[in-house]
């Protein structure tokens, strides 16, 4: 299904059999997912395994979380992407907090214990359950991509090398009827991002250079390819530039699971994905070194090209 914005909506909930590996439905989904990720770098997915009430609890918890005083939110000060970000010059409406490995209960609890004097067991449970379900959805998507690329035997080793960052976001209402910048254009650096947004605002840059509005739909997630998967897949999967635009009088909330790699993992394109029509685009690189390089280079979108790009030369 296409909402006239170019980005397809793929239904994982039509028939439970579709999510059984090897079924006819599964094979069709694999192709749709791969094509969407190759052409646009992502898609919207209907996924009804996450109950509506869990989204409602998340949004209720997020309002309470972002209403905490700034000095409390700033206690969550891990490394750049795991800590509190917000109220930057140029994008004053954006604020976010990162929870490292939220699908592990103790990690979610460390976060809620840090911000509330008596913890917040209910919200901790919600964060943990939601991030686990998003982790499951990402696992399905990645399996479909690998199967469709003919490299599914890499799946198990790939999954065990993952680190998960769950990031919660608030965009304060701009009180303007014009679309206003919420989050600057960027490309995610991870493998895959799974996003839930409570209202319209996400835009993806097409390969033709047009900003496409991703139409918001309740009970669905957005799946987006990050630079690391783009590199690993030898450019078969496209990592799109995207941004958030907001308008009106209501705050916008979103949450995303960013699937990253553990420190020290080497990103190496499988030989199956390199041939004379697809020369190797990136030399093998250490994910930790790349993240350090990114930080030193202000998260420049072209950082991976200078860090590990082959520049089209045979390596
Ligand atoms: O809030 C959103 O919809 C997108 C957020 C995003 O792109 C990011 O945090 O990398
Ligand atoms: Fe992003």
UniProtKB/TrEMBL annotation:
One Gene Ontology molecular-function label: metal ion binding
Q: Name one Pfam family in it.
A: DIOX_N
Q: Gene3D superfamilies, from UniProt?
A: B-lactam Antibiotic, Isopenicillin N Synthase, Chain
At the top level of its lineage, which domain of life is listed?
Answer: Eukaryota
SUPFAM superfamilies documented for this protein: Clavaminate synthase-like
Q: Which PROSITE patterns match?
A: FE2OG_OXY (PS51471)
Q: Which UniProt keywords apply?
A: Iron, Metal-binding, Oxidoreductase
- Fe2OG dioxygenase domain residues are 161-261
Give the UniProt family note. Belongs to the iron/ascorbate-dependent oxidoreductase family.
What this protein is reported to do is described as: 2-oxoglutarate-dependent dioxygenase essential for auxin catabolism and maintenance of auxin homeostasis in reproductive organs. Catalyzes the irreversible oxidation of indole-3-acetic acid (IAA) to the biologically inactive 2-oxoindole-3-acetic acid (OxIAA).
**Protein name stated in the entry:** 2-oxoglutarate-dependent dioxygenase DAO
What lineage does UniProt assign to this protein's organism? Eukaryota, Viridiplantae, Streptophyta, Embryophyta, Tracheophyta
């Amino acid at each position: 299904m296409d909402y006239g914005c170019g980005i397809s909506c793929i239904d994982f909930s039509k028939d439970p059999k579709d999510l059984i590996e090897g079924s006819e439905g599964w094979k069709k989904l694999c192709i749709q997912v791969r094509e969407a990720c190759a052409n646009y770098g992502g898609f919207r997915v209907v996924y009804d395994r996450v109950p509506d009430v869990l989204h409602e609890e998340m949004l209720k918890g997020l309002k309470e979380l972002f209403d905490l005083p700034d000095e409390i939110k700033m206690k969550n000060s891990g490394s750049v992407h795991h800590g509190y970000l917000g109220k930057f010059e140029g994008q004053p409406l954006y604020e976010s907090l990162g929870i490292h490995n939220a699908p592990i209960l103790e990690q979610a609890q460390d976060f809620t214990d840090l911000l509330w004097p008596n913890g917040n067991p209910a919200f901790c449970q919600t964060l943990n359950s939601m991030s686990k379900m998003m982790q499951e959805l990402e696992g399905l998507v990645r399996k479909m991509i690998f199967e469709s690329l003919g490299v599914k035997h890499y799946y198990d080793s790939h999954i065990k090398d993952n680190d998960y960052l769950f990031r919660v976001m608030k965009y304060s209402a701009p009180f303007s009827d014009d679309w206003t910048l919420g989050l600057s254009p960027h490309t995610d650096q991870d493998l895959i991002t799974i996003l839930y947004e409570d209202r319209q605002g996400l835009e993806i840059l097409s390969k033709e250079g047009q900003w496409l509005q991703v139409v918001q739909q309740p009970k669905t997630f957005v799946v987006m390819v990050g630079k690391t998967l783009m590199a690993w897949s030898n450019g078969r999967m496209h990592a799109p530039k995207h941004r958030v635009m907001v308008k009106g009088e209501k705050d916008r909330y979103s949450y995303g699971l960013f699937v990253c790699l553990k420190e020290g993992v080497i990103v190496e394109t499988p030989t199956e994905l390199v041939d004379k029509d697809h020369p190797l685009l990136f030399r093998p690189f250490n994910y930790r070194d790349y993240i350090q390089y990114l930080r030193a280079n202000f998260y420049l979108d072209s950082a991976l090209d200078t860090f590990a790009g082959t520049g089209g030369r045979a390596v």
